[in-house]
Amino acid sequence: MRTVFTSLLALYVTSAVVAFPRYGSLAGLSERQLAEIIPTLDAKLPPQPPGPQGFTGAKLVDDAAHPWRPLRRGDIRGPCPGLNTLASHGYLPRDGVVTPAQLIVAVQEGLNFDHQTARVATYLAHLGDGNLVTDLISIGEKTTRTGPDPPRPAIVGGLNNHGTFEGDGSLTRGDFFDGDNHSFNQTLFDQFIEFSNRYGNGFYNLTVAAELRFRRIQQSIATNPTFSMVGLRHITIYGEATFPVNFFVDGRRTGAQAGQLSIPDATSFFRDMRFPRGFFRSATAGGATGADILFNAHPIQPGRNVGGVNNFVEDQSLGGILEPCRFYTQFVNTTIRGLYPRPTGVLRRNLIINAGFLYDALSPPDCPQVFPWGQL
Ligand code: HEM
Ligand SMILES: *[C@@H]1O[C@H](CO)[C@@H](O)[C@H](O)[C@H]1NC(C)=O
Ligand SMILES: *[C@@H]1O[C@H](CO)[C@@H](O)[C@H](O)[C@H]1NC(C)=O
Ligand SMILES: *[C@@H]1O[C@H](CO)[C@@H](O)[C@H](O)[C@H]1NC(C)=O
Ligand SMILES: *[C@@H]1O[C@H](CO)[C@@H](O)[C@H](O)[C@H]1NC(C)=O
């Protein structure tokens, strides 16, 4: 009897474990859960990051080899309009489950992210939200549901996971507190249009970005008791607001038209996850150029609401846009170590390798590398 019971239990545990998605994050799991799940996964040795592109000028990216296609049931999309668009055009796997190497190639090729920005964004995301054993990450969550989903741990949200890369105060998405909805929000996009009309004469530019960025932070402080903008989020909240200016404007627009994003083109990316027809990517490879302008227009220090709305308290402990070394050190040594306090085997190896890729990409000046899990 005992043997039957134990083997039934083993079968139950095994089938529960087999269902663990190959792209689900292992962050925060107990040592026992890790010991059950990791042997069921197809472990990979993380490859070296791909190199920079040869050609970095403007070119047609809405091309015949990358047709836009509508979502199929089960395709994953998330909080990032850039990655959603790249997946819907096939620069990334259309199902939204990707490798770090695929991310780097796609953001360089399809939207002209420069090599450093591509690697930094990729390894921040992978360490925070990826499956470090299988070397896979999902760009969000499954989009279409035709029936009740089987119960599933919250940890498979990929880039939707709150508090790692995804954060509060987004331009076109609500906060986690407002219902964990990472979909495009038309009400917030109407505000994007209103600000583009008010400050940009009908276009989104860096002047608009500075004002809208500030407004969204104020709105979150006033309505979200859990609003938080510390460490990585203090950097991305300013950086991401420049991306529509730097990357969603057709690369053939020059002179006075450069840096001015039309509302139809913005709608195409944000809402439809689609390049404007015949879109040429940016004329130069780049990153978050202009983030300092947005910050200096309304310099809000890192911080969070404490104990309710309208009580924003500064918190520099995880660094921020003005403190890259503290940000790097705390991100790896506190945030990611906190998600993986005692990794062993292939998980430990791959954490060390990916944290090394992040350090190489950031090359933070005068900032020693940290090794929370030792060295290989
Ligand atoms: C490896 C590369 C990338 C990763 C891992 C990434 C990840 C993310 C994540 C997690 C967010 C959500 C943050 C939040 O607002 O809560 C986000 C937002 C955003 N991303 Fe990306 N992204 C990448 C590349 C790109 C590219 C290539 C573009 C465009 C050229 C882009 C444009 C944006 C924009 C505009 C937002 C802000 C959306 C909003 O505030 O409503 N991203 N990204
Ligand atoms: C969109 O955002 C507005 C403003 O924050 C909010 O009131 C509304 O509930 C959101 N809509 C959805 C569908 O989440
Ligand atoms: C999320 O937002 C989308 C678009 O605004 C809406 O269609 C959907 O019903 C919302 N889902 C939830 C769970 O609120
Ligand atoms: C944005 O557009 C407005 C209106 O045309 C203009 O006054 C402002 O200088 C522009 N800002 C940038 C950074 O292009
Ligand atoms: C990293 O964290 C450990 C454990 O909290 C601490 O002892 C060490 O000083 C930290 N290293 C740095 C560089 O902050």
Helix/strand layout:
Blueprint: H1 2-18, H2 31-37, E1 76-77, H3 81-88, E2 97-98, H4 100-111, H5 115-129, E3 137-138, E4 141-142, H6 186-200, E5 203-204, H7 206-223, E6 228-229, H8 232-240, H9 243-247, E7 261-262, H10 263-270, H11 291-297, E8 303-305, E9 312-314, H12 324-339, H13 345-362
Helix pairs in contact: 4-5, 5-13, 6-7, 7-11, 8-11
The structure holds protoporphyrin IX containing FE and 2-acetamido-2-deoxy-beta-D-glucopyranose (4 copies).
One 2-acetamido-2-deoxy-beta-D-glucopyranose (NAG) is lined by residues 179, 181, 183, 185-186.
Describe this structure in words.
The chain has a domain at 1-163 and 335-342: Orthogonal Bundle (Chloroperoxidase). The longest helix is centred in the middle third of the chain and has 18 residues, at 206-223. The chain is mainly alpha-helical and 376 residues long. Residues 1-17 and 144-155 have low confidence and may be disordered. The protein is 41% helix and 5% strand. The protein starts with a helix and ends in a 14-residue tail after the last helix. The chain has helices spanning 2-18, 31-37, 81-88, 100-111, 115-129, 186-200, 206-223, 232-240, 243-247, 263-270, 291-297, 324-339, 345-362; strands spanning 76-77, 97-98, 137-138, 141-142, 203-204, 228-229, 261-262, 303-305, 312-314. The strands form four sheets. Strands 6-8-9 form a three-stranded antiparallel β-sheet. It has a two-stranded antiparallel sheet with strand order 1-4. Strands 2-3 form a two-stranded antiparallel sheet. Protoporphyrin IX containing FE binds next to helix 3, helix 4, helix 5, helix 8 and helix 9. Keywords: Heme, Iron, Metal-binding, Oxidoreductase, Peroxidase, Signal. This is Aromatic peroxygenase. Its cofactor is heme b. GO terms for molecular function: metal ion binding; peroxidase activity. Residues 1-19 form the signal peptide.
